[in-house]
Design a protein that fits this description.
Number of strands: 0
Low-confidence stretches: none
Strand content: under 5%
Structural class: mainly alpha
Shape: globular
Number of domains: 1
Largest sheet: none
Number of helices: 21
Helix content: over 70%
């Protein structure tokens, strides 16, 4: 393959991957097989494959940052099990329920706050959707589609606002600082939440039928809302402060967060053996899946590097004089298409071995790219026909048709594309805070 043209090399790799996926093979195993074949074709021997054990150790066994992944996942599922989602949602109603758009704003705000503890898009959507959907549709007579769409889209904040499982996985794969990636996600996460709420506000003002009744505003209700979610805000504040004031690494902060989450559950008398067991098992399944994807993606990356595929692609683009904006648009379009067929984690690690060296080779920031990748992955969660958030919300919507969820989420899809555009035009939105805290972005 080393003597083939670049175009044919890429086409053969793509066809091989698609063939394996069409056969029903797990994507992680498909990536491992493709990576091994590429290593052998590039001149490696069967004996040289023994080095893959060292590769796996370097990725998993010798990476302290990876320990934060199961800890943050466990913390997220633990706060879900001990009932913090209900307190966050009730508190959000008192704070933003008076704005035109009413309780739809509470969906976005509560998802954003819960995301700062959970780190999972699907868990965020499921936790808040189970609370918001019956209340808003059945009790307050809100239109179905805006409610379902706002919760499904709000769930996408789960892996953008730190702590984020996807940021951790991306950082481990590319060797980037997890602390910097967390910092890079804060400002875009807040801006995206505001964009969602701005859309709800404008839609409610133009057409009040898109939202239900507004609640009356009072300082007492707002303060009561803050008091209701004090434990969640305390947990978030302690995690963020411990990392960025230099008291703890992300991994150590994750461990402390687990202890605090358990203490909160104990104070609320919701910390049971069943809750801990459910959180632990969910963490085990999620972590195992992500680690397998990281390891197999590294095998593919090694095979591609041996064949100099990323370097040849970068050189071809430079020689052709392709505009960076055009290239970026094509990459975004590629992810939008892939999001219709692949689950987010698989899509990310299937493409990173090519996209990462290409983009960084053209001068794009690794930290900035991580934020872009996370948003593109989240778009896949609300893209039919395999968007996870769509299925989760439809499943807890008391039998309402999938079309209601899909139509409801369409405006938020374009809001996220707007966020990607803003990040391309002003990359400082993602790089300013890491630069301020760590000296570079």
């Amino acid at each position: 393959m080393a003597e083939l043209s670049l175009t044919w090399s890429i086409l053969i790799i793509i066809v091989a991957i698609l063939t394996l996926l069409a056969s029903g093979m797990l994507i992680a195993l498909a990536m491992a097989l493709i990576g091994i074949v590429l290593i052998l074709i590039s001149g490696g021997s069967l004996a040289s494959l023994g080095a893959l054990g060292i590769l796996q150790y370097n990725v998993v066994g010798d990476n302290f940052g990876l320990v934060s992944m199961p800890l943050f996942i466990f913390m997220g599922y633990l706060v879900l099990e001990v009932g913090l989602a209900e307190r966050i949602y009730d508190g959000s109603i008192g704070i933003v329920g008076f704005i035109p758009g009413g309780l739809l704003h509470a969906n976005i705000l509560s998802c954003a706050i819960f995301a700062a503890m959970c780190g999972s898009s699907v868990a965020t959507a499921a936790a808040l959707g189970a609370i918001a959907i019956p209340l808003e549709i059945n009790r307050h007579n809100y239109p179905v589609r805006p409610v379902l769409g706002s919760v499904a889209a709000g769930g996408t904040l789960g892996i953008l606002i730190p702590p984020s499982v996807t940021f951790i996985a991306y950082g481990v794969f590319v060797g980037e600082s997890i602390g910097q990636l967390f910092a890079a996600g804060i400002v875009p996460g807040i801006i995206l939440s505001c964009i969602f709420m701005l859309y709800i506000f404008i839609a409610a003002v133009i057409d009040p039928s898109t939202a239900g009744p507004r609640l009356s505003f009072s300082i007492k209700k707002a303060l009561s809302g803050l008091a209701t979610m004090w434990s969640a805000l305390l947990l978030i504040g302690l995690i963020i402060a411990s990392i960025y004031l230099g008291f703890a690494t992300p991994t150590e902060a994750a461990g402390v967060g687990c202890v605090i989450a358990a203490a909160i559950g104990f104070c609320y008398r919701r910390l049971t053996f069943k809750a801990v067991r459910e959180a632990a098992m969910a963490s085990l399944y999620t972590t195992s899946f992500m680690v397998l994807l990281i390891v197999t993606a590294q095998i593919v990356s090694l095979g591609l590097s041996n064949l100099e595929i990323p370097q040849r692609i970068t050189a071809a683009i430079v020689e052709a004089g392709i505009n960076k904006a055009v290239l970026f648009s094509l990459i975004v379009l590629m992810y939008l298409i892939l999001g219709c067929f692949l689950e987010p984690g698989s899509m990310l690690f299937l493409t990173l071995p090519i996209v990462y060296p290409l983009m960084t080779g053209l001068g794009f920031s690794s930290v900035w790219l991580g934020v872009i990748m996370v948003i593109l992955v989240e778009l896949a969660n609300i893209t039919p026909p395999v968007g996870f958030n769509l299925f989760v919300i439809q499943g807890i919507s008391e039998g309402r048709p999938m079309i209601d969820v899909v139509v409801g989420v369409i405006p938020y899809f374009f809001c996220m594309l707007l966020m990607i555009t803003l990040l391309y035009v002003w990359p400082e939105l993602a790089t300013w805070l890491p630069t301020y805290l760590f000296g570079r972005g």
